[in-house]
Amino acid sequence: MRFHFKAMLGAMAALALAVPAQAADLKLALSSSPSAMDPQFHNLGANLNVAQNMFDTLVRMDADSRLMPWLAESWRVIDDRTWEFRLRKDVRFHDGTKLTADDVIWSLDRPATLVNSPAGFGIYTRSIATKTAVDATTLRITTNGPYPLLLSDLSVIYILNRKATEGLAAEDFARGKGMVGTGPYRFVSFQRDDRVELARNDTAWGTGPAWDHVSVRFIPNNASRLAALLSGDVDAIEGVPTADLAQVKANPKLVYAQKVSGRLVYFYVDSGRADTPQVTARDGGKLAKNPLADERVRRAMSMAINREAIADRVMAGLGYPTNNLVPETLFGYDPTLTVVKFDPEGAKRLLAEAGYPDGFALTIHGPNDRLVNDAQIVQAVAQMLTRIGIAAKVETIPMASYASRGAKGEFSFGLIGFGSQTGESSSILRAIIACQNPKSGGGLYNWSHYCNPQVDDYLTRALATVDDQARLDLLRKAAHLAVTTEAIIPLHFQATTWAARKGIAIEPRTDERTFAASFRPVP
């Protein structure tokens, strides 16, 4: 998607939702369990996959990451700092109360008040200066300055029922309190690391949900998840294992869908701390300084990775090597950032030049249930680094634990993925590249602890620029400087595959989200 600010001014669109021929039940298997049920507590893909079934946002990204009206049926720009939103008048919460502008204001205020969030949603509300209810279904928002990404930011914030959630802590939601949304399905029950049970919302706005009941199961093991589909234990799954794609495609009882995502799969490299926890000398002794703080070391590590081999052998053709932050279909892509050439001999020379002719030792961390073949990627890169003198050990763990520990700074070098939530590169720049700043919300996922004031300057200016070309130039400058100074080590964009039993249609998404509305029964 190419996001153009001017094209979105006063945007309105007719909303067309699929109408099922008849209702049925859906048993859906996901790869990761949520770390929290509070839809505003932890900005994590596994959490969003669950929340999207029960909660709505003012604006939504469609399957191709294009903005569309949702709870807000229309909006207009009054001046360069003031926006007015009109809410749909036919929307009710699951408890029967009507959605009002006061609920929206509460929902936009709340993220900044949540404590102990490992990565919250406050970054998406910090641009807002004031919020005013003009009437029950009209909301006026002013921003701190010209801000072209307000609509995109609002597509990330779930709207809650103020009466049902005021005074609740994040952990209360896991017990069913506050689970009162406007989405197509109502909360029934939650068993941590096992499943979420949902029921059809009979008062849902629009044309209503496709399913009577939805059971969302969490099955981290790829083989077990596919086996559940093949046995009929579940009706649909995400993350079809690459090794089993041919089997799925050839099975007449199954259907599948595939899409290249906007999720960047990359390695964070702890360059910002003088002492990093998972790096030692080869004999296990303490090093005088953090070698990852040296740009030459980070570049050597990048040059040691054979991205083409990973794409072909580990990803079975479902990885698309890159040195960019976003794919070429998204605003902010920089065509001058070409894929880093595999050069192990050059990498060895850089290590020696940096003062590490004999290398050092480190532990590579990564999830084992979130990205396509994530554990295998980590193993492959460990072998590649070993060949240039870096003795690499591997530790992969479930994503929920990985996200929590990573946010606490427990790791030095590891695999992770991040997709643009705004449809352009500013989202990923703010989250994983910008200097860590609790006040501004920058660097929430900056596990590299990288900080370059010039990159932040380019980004800050881009976020306040409404001219498309000027903003594009600034975003490209920020990305180019960050990537060429090895803020992170980009690897590839992944293609994601979903599968279901015959009789179910699948809508694949570039953001890789998987929820009940992604599936509908067909004759």
From TrEMBL:
Q: Which residues form the Solute-binding protein family domain?
A: 67-437
GO MF entry, a single one: peptide transmembrane transporter activity
Q: Which SUPFAM superfamilies match?
A: Periplasmic binding protein-like II (SSF53850)
Q: Which GO terms describe its biological process?
A: peptide transport
Q: Give the Pfam families listed for this entry.
A: SBP_bac_5
Primary site of residence: periplasm
Position of the signal peptide: 1-23
Q: Could you tell me which Gene3D superfamilies the record lists for this protein?
A: Dipeptide-binding Protein, Domain 1, Dipeptide-binding Protein, Domain 3, Periplasmic binding protein-like II
Subcellular localization is given as: Periplasm
Determine the domain of life of the protein's source: Bacteria
The alphabetized UniProt keywords are:
Signal, Transport
GO cellular component terms, alphabetically, are: ATP-binding cassette (ABC) transporter complex; outer membrane-bounded periplasmic space
- InterPro entries for the chain: Peptide/Ni-bd, SBP_5, SBP_5_dom
Tell me the protein family, please. Belongs to the bacterial solute-binding protein 5 family.
Annotated PANTHER family: OLIGOPEPTIDE-BINDING PROTEIN APPA (PTHR30290:SF9), PERIPLASMIC BINDING COMPONENT OF ABC TRANSPORTER (PTHR30290)
Protein name listed in UniProt: ABC transporter substrate-binding protein
